[in-house]
Amino acid sequence: MTQVHPGRPRVGVMGGTFDPVHHGHLVAASEAQARFDLDEVIFVPTGLPTFKLDQDVTVAEHRYLMTVIATASNPRFTVSRVDIERDGVTYTVDTLRDLRAQRPDADLFFITGADAVEQILTWKDAGELFDMAHFVAVTRPGHALSVAGLPDDRVSLLEIPALAISSTDVRARARAGEPVWYLVPDGVVQYIAKHRLYRGQS
Ligand code: ATP
Ligand code: MG
């Protein structure tokens, strides 16, 4: 594996819209942490996600706070505001630039699910992404994990326990008054109820 140096901090980066964060995200981060011996995994809620400009996305502060609640009990998990504090659309290349500036001594591991992996080559400055981080591509139910066309020395595949959970489904359940217990952490269930999130969306 290139870009990885013994003795340097190993930092995972889990980017996502987290609208809301769910146990699929947490298991992906936990598995990557263990498999790659990461000192820390930084969850980075997006500002405006590029691929969701046509959708209603919950205000960043709610998504950020739910991510804080969900990760609070894990001493290796932290949450960064770099994407929500940058104006405009979020591009992963900017996320990685900002985190590298904050952690110049660290090796970064960008964790991404099978559905997102398929799109990496369409992301802004795709070539540069692989110079800035090692990519960890995790399995996700309903999506074939293919890394065809990606530099194989910069991408690792990781099979993780299959959790067929998506934020889209959690939002639909909340809207329909169906339970979201055990799909998201208890504190996130309570946060959604307290702020009546996902009630008014079509
Ligand atoms: P939405 O349905 O709104 O797109 P989502 O569940 O896909 O939400 P995102 O915030 O879009 O969640 O995903 C953030 C990252 O987590 C992506 O890399 C995605 O592939 C990965 N991911 C999301 N859910 C799972 C899951 N159940 N198993 C593995 N990876 C997941
Ligand atoms: Mg998604």
From TrEMBL:
Keyword 4Fe-4S carried by entry: no
Record domain Cytidyltransferase-like: where: 13-173
Pfam families: CTP_transf_like
Record Gene3D superfamilies: HUPs
Pathway: Cofactor biosynthesis; NAD(+) biosynthesis; deamido-NAD(+) from nicotinate D-ribonucleotide: step 1/1
Catalysed conversion reaction: nicotinate beta-D-ribonucleotide + ATP + H(+) = deamido-NAD(+) + diphosphate
Keyword Transport in annotation: no
Top-tier EC class: transferase
Alphabetized GO MF terms: ATP binding; nicotinate-nucleotide adenylyltransferase activity
CDD domains listed in its UniProt record: NMNAT (cd02165)
Keyword field: ATP-binding, NAD, Nucleotide-binding, Nucleotidyltransferase, Pyridine nucleotide biosynthesis, Transferase
GO biological process: NAD+ biosynthetic process
Entry EC number(s): 2.7.7.18
Function per UniProt: Catalyzes the reversible adenylation of nicotinate mononucleotide (NaMN) to nicotinic acid adenine dinucleotide (NaAD).
Stated family: Belongs to the NadD family.
Protein name as it appears in the record: Probable nicotinate-nucleotide adenylyltransferase
Native source species: Cellulomonas soli
